[in-house]
Protein backbone atom coordinates (compact mmCIF):
# COMPACT_ATOMS: atom_id res chain seq x y z
CA UNK A 1 0.00 0.00 0.00
CA UNK A 2 1.55 3.24 -1.19
CA UNK A 3 -0.80 5.79 0.29
CA UNK A 4 -0.10 5.89 4.01
CA UNK A 5 0.13 9.62 4.16
CA UNK A 6 -1.37 11.88 6.77
CA UNK A 7 -3.01 15.01 5.45
CA UNK A 8 -1.11 18.18 6.22
CA UNK A 9 -4.15 19.72 7.89
CA UNK A 10 -4.09 16.84 10.38
CA UNK A 11 -0.33 16.91 10.76
CA UNK A 12 -0.45 20.58 11.69
CA UNK A 13 -2.77 19.71 14.57
CA UNK A 14 -0.48 16.95 15.93
CA UNK A 15 2.10 17.13 18.70
CA UNK A 16 5.72 15.98 18.24
CA UNK A 17 7.03 12.89 19.90
CA UNK A 18 5.25 10.13 18.05
CA UNK A 19 6.75 7.73 15.52
CA UNK A 20 7.53 8.45 11.91
CA UNK A 21 4.86 9.80 9.64
CA UNK A 22 4.50 10.07 5.86
CA UNK A 23 3.31 13.13 4.00
CA UNK A 24 2.87 13.77 0.27
CA UNK A 25 2.17 16.89 -1.65
CA UNK A 26 3.49 19.61 -3.92
CA UNK A 27 6.46 21.85 -3.21
CA UNK A 28 5.55 25.49 -2.87
CA UNK A 29 9.11 26.68 -2.17
CA UNK A 30 12.54 25.46 -1.15
CA UNK A 31 14.59 27.83 1.01
CA UNK A 32 18.36 27.57 1.70
CA UNK A 33 18.37 24.04 0.27
CA UNK A 34 17.00 23.06 3.65
CA UNK A 35 13.38 24.10 4.20
CA UNK A 36 10.58 22.82 1.97
CA UNK A 37 7.12 24.37 2.18
CA UNK A 38 4.81 21.49 1.27
CA UNK A 39 1.13 21.77 0.43
CA UNK A 40 -1.43 19.04 -0.25
CA UNK A 41 -4.60 21.08 -0.65
CA UNK A 42 -6.08 20.08 2.70
CA UNK A 43 -5.51 23.66 3.91
CA UNK A 44 -3.60 26.75 2.84
CA UNK A 45 -0.99 26.40 5.52
CA UNK A 46 2.14 24.55 4.37
CA UNK A 47 4.07 21.96 6.32
CA UNK A 48 7.71 22.86 6.76
CA UNK A 49 9.95 19.93 5.94
CA UNK A 50 13.48 20.23 7.22
CA UNK A 51 16.39 18.57 5.44
CA UNK A 52 19.49 18.14 7.51
CA UNK A 53 22.36 19.80 5.67
CA UNK A 54 24.64 17.27 4.05
CA UNK A 55 22.24 14.35 4.45
CA UNK A 56 20.61 14.65 1.06
CA UNK A 57 22.07 14.29 -2.43
CA UNK A 58 22.73 17.40 -4.45
CA UNK A 59 20.77 15.79 -7.31
CA UNK A 60 17.68 15.45 -5.12
CA UNK A 61 17.92 19.02 -3.87
CA UNK A 62 18.03 20.23 -7.50
CA UNK A 63 14.72 18.53 -8.17
CA UNK A 64 12.94 20.13 -5.24
CA UNK A 65 11.55 22.93 -7.37
CA UNK A 66 8.27 24.81 -7.05
CA UNK A 67 5.53 22.57 -8.40
CA UNK A 68 7.31 19.26 -7.99
CA UNK A 69 5.65 16.54 -5.96
CA UNK A 70 7.16 14.39 -3.25
CA UNK A 71 6.79 11.90 -0.49
CA UNK A 72 8.57 12.60 2.77
CA UNK A 73 8.97 10.35 5.79
CA UNK A 74 10.23 11.58 9.13
CA UNK A 75 9.46 12.73 12.65
CA UNK A 76 7.56 15.78 13.82
CA UNK A 77 9.58 18.20 15.91
CA UNK A 78 8.96 21.51 17.60
CA UNK A 79 10.10 24.15 15.16
CA UNK A 80 13.18 26.19 16.01
CA UNK A 81 12.23 28.85 13.50
CA UNK A 82 9.51 31.45 13.47
CA UNK A 83 6.35 31.08 11.43
CA UNK A 84 5.39 27.54 12.34
CA UNK A 85 4.80 25.57 15.52
CA UNK A 86 6.02 22.23 14.24
CA UNK A 87 8.00 20.86 11.30
CA UNK A 88 8.83 17.51 9.82
CA UNK A 89 12.44 16.42 10.17
CA UNK A 90 12.81 14.31 7.04
CA UNK A 91 14.58 10.95 7.04
CA UNK A 92 13.74 10.27 3.39
CA UNK A 93 12.44 12.44 0.60
CA UNK A 94 11.36 10.88 -2.65
CA UNK A 95 10.46 12.96 -5.71
CA UNK A 96 7.24 11.68 -7.25
CA UNK A 97 7.19 14.07 -10.18
CA UNK A 98 9.62 16.78 -11.14
CA UNK A 99 8.64 20.22 -12.38
CA UNK A 100 10.80 22.32 -14.65
CA UNK A 101 11.26 25.52 -12.68
CA UNK A 102 11.89 27.51 -15.85
CA UNK A 103 8.61 26.45 -17.40
CA UNK A 104 6.22 26.00 -14.48
CA UNK A 105 3.80 28.94 -14.84
CA UNK A 106 3.03 29.30 -11.14
CA UNK A 107 5.87 31.17 -9.53
CA UNK A 108 5.92 31.65 -5.77
CA UNK A 109 4.68 35.22 -6.08
CA UNK A 110 1.39 37.05 -6.50
CA UNK A 111 -0.34 36.37 -9.81
CA UNK A 112 -3.37 38.25 -11.10
CA UNK A 113 -6.72 36.45 -11.16
CA UNK A 114 -6.87 37.11 -14.92
CA UNK A 115 -3.59 35.32 -15.45
CA UNK A 116 -4.66 32.43 -13.23
CA UNK A 117 -7.82 32.02 -15.31
CA UNK A 118 -5.60 31.29 -18.30
CA UNK A 119 -3.96 28.48 -16.35
CA UNK A 120 -7.13 27.26 -14.67
CA UNK A 121 -5.73 23.72 -14.73
CA UNK A 122 -3.04 24.81 -12.26
CA UNK A 123 -4.82 27.35 -10.13
CA UNK A 124 -5.95 24.67 -7.65
CA UNK A 125 -2.42 24.94 -6.32
CA UNK A 126 -2.81 28.54 -5.16
CA UNK A 127 -4.05 29.70 -1.78
CA UNK A 128 -6.90 31.76 -3.19
CA UNK A 129 -8.35 28.91 -5.23
CA UNK A 130 -7.62 26.42 -2.49
CA UNK A 131 -9.88 28.43 -0.22
CA UNK A 132 -12.51 29.17 -2.87
CA UNK A 133 -12.97 25.54 -3.89
CA UNK A 134 -12.94 24.16 -0.37
CA UNK A 135 -15.67 26.65 0.46
CA UNK A 136 -17.52 25.69 -2.72
CA UNK A 137 -17.37 22.07 -1.63
CA UNK A 138 -18.63 22.89 1.87
CA UNK A 139 -21.50 24.89 0.41
CA UNK A 140 -22.63 22.01 -1.83
CA UNK A 141 -22.55 19.68 1.13
CA UNK A 142 -24.56 22.18 3.18
CA UNK A 143 -27.15 22.46 0.40
CA UNK A 144 -27.89 18.75 0.62
CA UNK A 145 -27.80 18.77 4.39
CA UNK A 146 -30.29 21.63 4.62
CA UNK A 147 -32.87 19.90 2.45
CA UNK A 148 -32.21 16.45 3.81
CA UNK A 149 -32.79 17.67 7.38
CA UNK A 150 -36.15 19.02 6.24
CA UNK A 151 -37.29 15.84 4.50
CA UNK A 152 -36.99 17.05 0.90
CA UNK A 153 -36.43 14.54 -1.92
CA UNK A 154 -33.39 15.26 -4.13
CA UNK A 155 -34.65 15.04 -7.69
CA UNK A 156 -32.38 14.55 -10.71
CA UNK A 157 -34.02 16.44 -13.53
CA UNK A 158 -32.92 15.88 -17.13
CA UNK A 159 -30.04 17.77 -18.69
CA UNK A 160 -31.47 17.26 -22.18
CA UNK A 161 -34.98 18.60 -22.60
CA UNK A 162 -37.46 18.97 -25.39
CA UNK A 163 -39.28 21.83 -23.74
CA UNK A 164 -38.15 25.26 -24.79
CA UNK A 165 -40.97 26.98 -23.00
CA UNK A 166 -39.33 28.05 -19.80
CA UNK A 167 -38.20 31.28 -21.35
CA UNK A 168 -35.36 31.68 -18.89
CA UNK A 169 -32.75 32.29 -21.56
CA UNK A 170 -31.31 31.32 -24.90
CA UNK A 171 -30.76 27.58 -25.23
CA UNK A 172 -27.98 25.37 -26.56
CA UNK A 173 -29.23 22.91 -29.17
CA UNK A 174 -28.53 19.21 -28.76
CA UNK A 175 -28.34 17.28 -32.01
CA UNK A 176 -26.57 14.48 -33.83
CA UNK A 177 -27.62 15.77 -37.24
CA UNK A 178 -24.85 16.49 -39.72
CA UNK A 179 -24.15 20.12 -40.51
CA UNK A 180 -23.03 19.25 -44.03
CA UNK A 181 -25.96 17.15 -45.10
CA UNK A 182 -28.77 18.33 -42.88
CA UNK A 183 -31.94 16.38 -43.61
CA UNK A 184 -34.66 18.78 -44.73
CA UNK A 185 -38.40 18.68 -45.30
CA UNK A 186 -39.91 19.63 -48.65
CA UNK A 187 -40.39 23.14 -47.33
CA UNK A 188 -36.64 23.38 -46.59
CA UNK A 189 -36.81 23.29 -42.78
CA UNK A 190 -34.61 20.90 -40.86
CA UNK A 191 -36.27 17.50 -40.50
CA UNK A 192 -35.87 16.76 -36.82
CA UNK A 193 -37.64 13.40 -37.25
CA UNK A 194 -34.21 12.19 -38.38
CA UNK A 195 -32.48 13.59 -35.32
CA UNK A 196 -31.49 11.43 -32.36
CA UNK A 197 -34.63 12.08 -30.33
CA UNK A 198 -36.88 12.56 -33.34
CA UNK A 199 -37.53 16.15 -32.28
CA UNK A 200 -35.56 19.29 -31.45
CA UNK A 201 -33.84 19.10 -28.07
CA UNK A 202 -31.83 21.50 -25.92
CA UNK A 203 -29.69 21.67 -22.82
CA UNK A 204 -31.86 22.57 -19.86
CA UNK A 205 -32.08 26.15 -18.60
CA UNK A 206 -33.87 25.10 -15.42
CA UNK A 207 -35.21 21.98 -13.74
CA UNK A 208 -38.26 23.79 -12.43
CA UNK A 209 -40.99 22.38 -14.63
CA UNK A 210 -39.93 18.81 -13.86
CA UNK A 211 -39.51 19.81 -10.22
CA UNK A 212 -43.14 20.89 -10.16
CA UNK A 213 -44.22 17.48 -11.46
CA UNK A 214 -42.40 15.70 -8.63
CA UNK A 215 -43.62 18.18 -6.01
CA UNK A 216 -47.13 17.00 -6.91
CA UNK A 217 -46.21 13.63 -5.43
CA UNK A 218 -43.53 14.23 -2.82
CA UNK A 219 -44.67 17.70 -1.75
CA UNK A 220 -41.08 18.82 -1.11
CA UNK A 221 -38.32 18.32 -3.66
CA UNK A 222 -35.17 20.08 -4.78
CA UNK A 223 -32.81 19.84 -7.70
CA UNK A 224 -29.13 20.71 -7.71
CA UNK A 225 -27.54 20.40 -11.10
CA UNK A 226 -25.97 22.11 -14.08
CA UNK A 227 -28.00 24.48 -16.21
CA UNK A 228 -27.06 26.09 -19.50
CA UNK A 229 -27.80 29.46 -20.99
CA UNK A 230 -26.49 30.58 -24.34
CA UNK A 231 -26.86 34.20 -23.35
CA UNK A 232 -24.15 36.36 -24.78
CA UNK A 233 -23.66 38.32 -21.60
CA UNK A 234 -20.06 38.96 -20.71
CA UNK A 235 -20.58 40.04 -17.13
CA UNK A 236 -18.94 39.16 -13.82
CA UNK A 237 -22.08 37.20 -12.80
CA UNK A 238 -23.13 35.21 -15.87
CA UNK A 239 -21.85 31.83 -17.03
CA UNK A 240 -23.04 29.74 -19.96
CA UNK A 241 -22.89 26.68 -17.69
CA UNK A 242 -23.78 27.14 -14.06
CA UNK A 243 -25.22 25.14 -11.20
CA UNK A 244 -28.60 25.87 -9.78
CA UNK A 245 -30.52 24.73 -6.71
CA UNK A 246 -34.26 24.67 -7.22
CA UNK A 247 -36.61 23.65 -4.41
CA UNK A 248 -40.27 23.21 -5.25
CA UNK A 249 -42.81 22.89 -2.46
CA UNK A 250 -46.48 21.93 -2.59
CA UNK A 251 -48.81 23.90 -0.29
CA UNK A 252 -46.36 26.83 -0.04
CA UNK A 253 -47.49 30.35 -0.87
CA UNK A 254 -45.18 33.25 -1.69
CA UNK A 255 -44.51 34.06 1.94
CA UNK A 256 -43.63 30.42 2.76
CA UNK A 257 -41.37 30.53 -0.27
CA UNK A 258 -39.56 33.64 0.93
CA UNK A 259 -39.14 32.16 4.39
CA UNK A 260 -37.64 28.99 2.92
CA UNK A 261 -35.23 30.93 0.70
CA UNK A 262 -34.13 33.19 3.52
CA UNK A 263 -33.64 30.30 5.95
CA UNK A 264 -31.69 28.46 3.26
CA UNK A 265 -29.29 31.29 2.48
CA UNK A 266 -28.67 32.03 6.15
CA UNK A 267 -28.14 28.32 6.83
CA UNK A 268 -25.50 28.10 4.09
CA UNK A 269 -23.67 31.12 5.45
CA UNK A 270 -23.79 29.88 9.03
CA UNK A 271 -22.51 26.50 7.87
CA UNK A 272 -19.35 27.89 6.29
CA UNK A 273 -18.81 30.36 9.12
CA UNK A 274 -18.74 27.37 11.42
CA UNK A 275 -16.83 24.89 9.26
CA UNK A 276 -14.55 26.95 7.03
CA UNK A 277 -13.31 29.64 9.35
CA UNK A 278 -9.67 29.51 8.26
CA UNK A 279 -10.49 29.73 4.57
CA UNK A 280 -12.92 32.58 5.16
CA UNK A 281 -10.31 34.44 7.20
CA UNK A 282 -7.90 34.04 4.31
CA UNK A 283 -10.49 35.28 1.81
CA UNK A 284 -11.41 38.15 4.11
CA UNK A 285 -7.79 39.31 4.14
CA UNK A 286 -7.48 38.80 0.39
CA UNK A 287 -10.55 40.93 -0.26
CA UNK A 288 -9.36 43.66 2.11
CA UNK A 289 -6.12 43.76 0.11
CA UNK A 290 -8.07 43.99 -3.17
CA UNK A 291 -10.25 46.78 -1.79
CA UNK A 292 -7.16 48.78 -0.87
CA UNK A 293 -6.27 48.97 -4.57
CA UNK A 294 -9.56 50.71 -5.33
CA UNK A 295 -10.25 54.43 -5.07
CA UNK A 296 -11.66 55.39 -1.66
CA UNK A 297 -15.18 56.04 -2.98
CA UNK A 298 -15.53 52.55 -4.47
CA UNK A 299 -14.30 50.63 -1.47
CA UNK A 300 -16.80 48.53 0.38
CA UNK A 301 -17.34 49.55 3.97
CA UNK A 302 -17.57 46.09 5.45
CA UNK A 303 -15.16 43.18 5.40
CA UNK A 304 -16.15 39.72 4.18
CA UNK A 305 -16.53 38.05 7.57
CA UNK A 306 -18.38 41.03 8.95
CA UNK A 307 -20.76 40.95 5.98
CA UNK A 308 -21.41 37.21 6.33
CA UNK A 309 -22.01 37.45 10.03
CA UNK A 310 -24.41 40.32 9.58
CA UNK A 311 -26.37 38.52 6.82
CA UNK A 312 -26.57 35.32 8.86
CA UNK A 313 -27.81 37.24 11.87
CA UNK A 314 -30.56 39.54 10.62
CA UNK A 315 -33.79 39.38 8.66
CA UNK A 316 -33.79 40.33 4.99
CA UNK A 317 -35.71 43.40 3.94
CA UNK A 318 -38.96 42.61 2.08
CA UNK A 319 -40.53 45.11 -0.29
CA UNK A 320 -42.78 44.97 -3.34
CA UNK A 321 -41.54 45.83 -6.82
CA UNK A 322 -43.82 48.87 -6.76
CA UNK A 323 -42.20 50.10 -3.54
CA UNK A 324 -38.74 49.39 -4.93
CA UNK A 325 -39.40 51.49 -8.04
CA UNK A 326 -40.83 54.25 -5.86
CA UNK A 327 -37.74 54.29 -3.62
CA UNK A 328 -35.35 54.39 -6.57
CA UNK A 329 -37.28 57.13 -8.40
CA UNK A 330 -37.27 59.26 -5.24
CA UNK A 331 -33.56 58.74 -4.57
CA UNK A 332 -31.03 61.54 -4.99
CA UNK A 333 -28.96 59.11 -7.09
CA UNK A 334 -31.78 58.76 -9.61
CA UNK A 335 -32.62 62.46 -9.61
CA UNK A 336 -28.97 63.32 -10.21
CA UNK A 337 -28.97 60.83 -13.11
CA UNK A 338 -26.34 58.62 -11.49
CA UNK A 339 -27.87 55.53 -13.13
CA UNK A 340 -27.09 54.50 -16.66
CA UNK A 341 -30.54 53.01 -17.25
CA UNK A 342 -33.91 54.67 -16.94
CA UNK A 343 -36.62 53.23 -14.73
CA UNK A 344 -40.40 53.45 -14.59
CA UNK A 345 -43.11 51.13 -13.29
CA UNK A 346 -43.29 48.17 -15.65
CA UNK A 347 -39.60 48.11 -16.52
CA UNK A 348 -37.23 45.50 -15.17
CA UNK A 349 -34.84 46.63 -12.44
CA UNK A 350 -31.33 46.82 -13.86
CA UNK A 351 -28.49 45.40 -11.87
CA UNK A 352 -27.29 48.94 -10.96
CA UNK A 353 -30.74 49.63 -9.43
CA UNK A 354 -30.70 46.35 -7.54
CA UNK A 355 -27.24 47.00 -6.18
CA UNK A 356 -28.10 50.52 -5.13
CA UNK A 357 -31.11 49.16 -3.21
CA UNK A 358 -29.10 46.57 -1.27
CA UNK A 359 -25.73 48.27 -0.94
CA UNK A 360 -26.61 51.92 -0.49
CA UNK A 361 -30.21 52.05 0.65
CA UNK A 362 -31.01 49.01 2.84
CA UNK A 363 -27.46 47.74 3.39
CA UNK A 364 -28.67 44.16 3.63
CA UNK A 365 -30.24 41.55 1.35
CA UNK A 366 -33.62 42.57 -0.04
CA UNK A 367 -36.49 40.42 -1.26
CA UNK A 368 -38.48 42.18 -3.97
CA UNK A 369 -41.95 40.75 -4.63
CA UNK A 370 -44.92 41.14 -6.94
CA UNK A 371 -43.39 42.16 -10.25
CA UNK A 372 -45.40 43.28 -13.30
CA UNK A 373 -46.59 40.17 -15.10
CA UNK A 374 -45.20 41.35 -18.44
CA UNK A 375 -41.60 40.99 -17.29
CA UNK A 376 -41.98 37.58 -15.62
CA UNK A 377 -42.51 33.98 -16.75
CA UNK A 378 -45.84 32.45 -17.73
CA UNK A 379 -46.04 30.08 -14.77
CA UNK A 380 -46.04 32.73 -12.05
CA UNK A 381 -49.29 33.13 -10.13
CA UNK A 382 -51.37 36.14 -11.09
CA UNK A 383 -52.24 38.52 -8.29
CA UNK A 384 -55.79 39.82 -7.79
CA UNK A 385 -54.73 43.27 -9.07
CA UNK A 386 -54.44 41.83 -12.61
CA UNK A 387 -51.11 43.60 -13.19
CA UNK A 388 -48.60 41.77 -11.04
CA UNK A 389 -47.55 38.19 -10.30
CA UNK A 390 -46.47 36.49 -7.04
CA UNK A 391 -42.78 36.59 -7.92
CA UNK A 392 -39.82 37.19 -5.65
CA UNK A 393 -36.20 38.01 -6.36
CA UNK A 394 -33.58 38.09 -3.64
CA UNK A 395 -30.90 40.72 -4.12
CA UNK A 396 -27.58 40.41 -2.34
CA UNK A 397 -24.91 43.02 -1.65
CA UNK A 398 -22.12 42.91 -4.23
CA UNK A 399 -23.97 40.45 -6.45
CA UNK A 400 -27.46 41.68 -7.26
CA UNK A 401 -29.97 38.95 -8.05
CA UNK A 402 -29.06 35.71 -6.33
CA UNK A 403 -32.48 34.03 -6.20
CA UNK A 404 -35.46 34.14 -8.55
CA UNK A 405 -38.67 32.46 -7.51
CA UNK A 406 -42.45 32.58 -7.39
CA UNK A 407 -45.67 31.04 -6.31
CA UNK A 408 -46.84 29.08 -9.35
CA UNK A 409 -50.15 29.50 -11.15
CA UNK A 410 -52.11 26.45 -10.02
CA UNK A 411 -55.42 27.42 -11.66
CA UNK A 412 -55.69 25.65 -15.02
CA UNK A 413 -57.79 28.25 -16.81
CA UNK A 414 -55.63 31.17 -15.68
CA UNK A 415 -52.46 29.29 -16.65
CA UNK A 416 -53.73 28.30 -20.08
CA UNK A 417 -54.89 31.79 -20.88
CA UNK A 418 -51.55 33.26 -19.86
CA UNK A 419 -49.67 30.64 -21.89
CA UNK A 420 -51.65 31.50 -25.02
CA UNK A 421 -51.05 35.20 -24.44
CA UNK A 422 -47.33 34.54 -24.22
CA UNK A 423 -47.29 32.14 -27.23
CA UNK A 424 -46.22 29.14 -25.19
CA UNK A 425 -47.06 25.89 -27.03
CA UNK A 426 -49.93 24.71 -24.82
CA UNK A 427 -50.42 21.34 -26.56
CA UNK A 428 -46.75 20.40 -26.28
CA UNK A 429 -46.92 21.11 -22.56
CA UNK A 430 -49.74 18.63 -21.91
CA UNK A 431 -47.73 16.90 -19.19
CA UNK A 432 -47.16 20.15 -17.31
CA UNK A 433 -50.82 21.12 -17.51
CA UNK A 434 -51.84 17.67 -16.27
CA UNK A 435 -50.59 18.66 -12.81
CA UNK A 436 -53.26 21.37 -12.84
CA UNK A 437 -55.88 18.92 -14.08
CA UNK A 438 -55.34 16.21 -11.50
CA UNK A 439 -55.13 17.35 -7.90
CA UNK A 440 -53.65 20.79 -8.38
CA UNK A 441 -52.48 22.58 -5.22
CA UNK A 442 -50.93 25.94 -4.39
CA UNK A 443 -47.16 25.58 -4.67
CA UNK A 444 -44.02 27.65 -4.92
CA UNK A 445 -40.32 27.40 -5.54
CA UNK A 446 -37.18 29.29 -6.44
CA UNK A 447 -33.79 28.98 -8.09
CA UNK A 448 -30.58 29.90 -6.34
CA UNK A 449 -27.60 30.37 -8.65
CA UNK A 450 -24.93 28.32 -6.89
CA UNK A 451 -21.95 30.24 -8.29
CA UNK A 452 -23.50 33.55 -7.25
CA UNK A 453 -23.85 32.13 -3.76
CA UNK A 454 -20.20 31.03 -3.80
CA UNK A 455 -19.27 34.52 -4.99
CA UNK A 456 -21.20 36.05 -2.16
CA UNK A 457 -19.58 33.84 0.46
CA UNK A 458 -16.02 34.02 -0.87
CA UNK A 459 -16.08 37.70 -1.88
CA UNK A 460 -14.73 36.88 -5.34
CA UNK A 461 -15.69 39.62 -7.79
CA UNK A 462 -15.76 37.53 -10.95
CA UNK A 463 -17.99 34.46 -11.33
CA UNK A 464 -15.24 32.85 -13.46
CA UNK A 465 -13.21 32.50 -10.28
CA UNK A 466 -15.69 30.39 -8.32
CA UNK A 467 -16.22 27.52 -10.78
CA UNK A 468 -13.26 25.30 -11.68
CA UNK A 469 -13.60 25.58 -15.45
CA UNK A 470 -15.81 28.49 -16.48
CA UNK A 471 -17.80 28.36 -19.69
CA UNK A 472 -18.39 31.81 -21.15
CA UNK A 473 -18.82 33.21 -24.67
CA UNK A 474 -15.79 32.23 -26.79
CA UNK A 475 -14.24 30.34 -23.91
CA UNK A 476 -14.40 26.60 -23.33
CA UNK A 477 -10.74 25.79 -22.68
CA UNK A 478 -9.90 22.88 -20.38
P1 LIG B 1 -30.19 37.58 -14.38
O1 LIG B 1 -31.26 38.62 -14.49
O2 LIG B 1 -29.13 37.90 -13.37
O3 LIG B 1 -29.65 37.16 -15.71
P2 LIG B 1 -32.25 35.59 -14.39
O4 LIG B 1 -33.43 36.44 -14.09
O5 LIG B 1 -32.00 35.21 -15.78
O6 LIG B 1 -30.92 36.31 -13.78
P3 LIG B 1 -33.36 33.19 -13.26
O7 LIG B 1 -33.80 32.71 -14.59
O8 LIG B 1 -34.39 33.64 -12.29
O9 LIG B 1 -32.27 34.34 -13.44
O10 LIG B 1 -32.40 32.08 -12.58
C1 LIG B 1 -32.36 31.84 -11.19
C2 LIG B 1 -30.99 32.16 -10.61
O11 LIG B 1 -29.95 31.55 -11.35
C3 LIG B 1 -30.65 33.64 -10.63
O12 LIG B 1 -31.21 34.30 -9.53
C4 LIG B 1 -29.15 33.60 -10.56
O13 LIG B 1 -28.72 33.40 -9.23
C5 LIG B 1 -28.79 32.37 -11.34
N1 LIG B 1 -28.40 32.65 -12.73
C6 LIG B 1 -29.19 32.99 -13.76
N2 LIG B 1 -28.51 33.12 -14.90
C7 LIG B 1 -27.21 32.83 -14.59
C8 LIG B 1 -26.00 32.76 -15.35
N3 LIG B 1 -25.99 33.00 -16.65
N4 LIG B 1 -24.86 32.42 -14.69
C9 LIG B 1 -24.86 32.16 -13.37
N5 LIG B 1 -25.97 32.20 -12.60
C10 LIG B 1 -27.13 32.54 -13.20
MN1 LIG C 1 -30.50 35.93 -17.16
- SS class: alpha+beta
Main pleated-sheet profile: 8 strands, mixed
In one word, what is the shape?
globular
Query: Could you give the count of β-strands?
Result: 16
Whole-angstrom Rg = 27 Å
What oligomeric state best describes the polypeptide chains here? Answer: single chain
Q: What portion of the residues fall into strands of 2 or more residues?
A: 15-25%
Secondary-structure element pattern, one letter each: HEEEHEEHHEEEEHEEHHHEHHHEEEHHEH
Distance between the termini: 32 Å
What is the arithmetic mean of pLDDT? 95
* Percent helix: 25-40%
Work out the helix count. Answer: 14
- Order of strands, main sheet, comes to 6-10-11-16-15-14-13-12
Q: What compounds sit in this structure?
A: adenosine-5'-triphosphate, manganese (II) ion
Q: Report the uncertain regions.
A: none
Can you describe this structure?
- The strands form 3 sheets. The protein has an 8-stranded mixed beta sheet, sandwiched between helices.
- Strand 4 (69-78) and strand 5 form a beta hairpin.
- It has helices at residues 8-11, 58-63, 113-118, 127-149, 208-218, 254-275, 277-292, 304-313, 321-330, 332-335, 351-362, 412-421, 430-437, 450-458; strands spanning 21-31, 35-39, 47-50, 69-78, 86-97, 153-154, 160-161, 173-174, 201-203, 220-228, 241-250, 317-320, 366-372, 388-396, 400-407, 443-449.
- The model has no long low-confidence stretch (mean pLDDT 95).
- The chain has 478 residues and is of the alpha+beta class.
- The chain starts with 7 loop residues before the first helix and ends in a 20-residue tail after the last helix.
- It binds adenosine-5'-triphosphate and manganese (II) ion.
- Residues 168-169, 229, 231, 238-239, 242, 244, 401-404, 447, 449, 451-452 line the site of adenosine-5'-triphosphate.
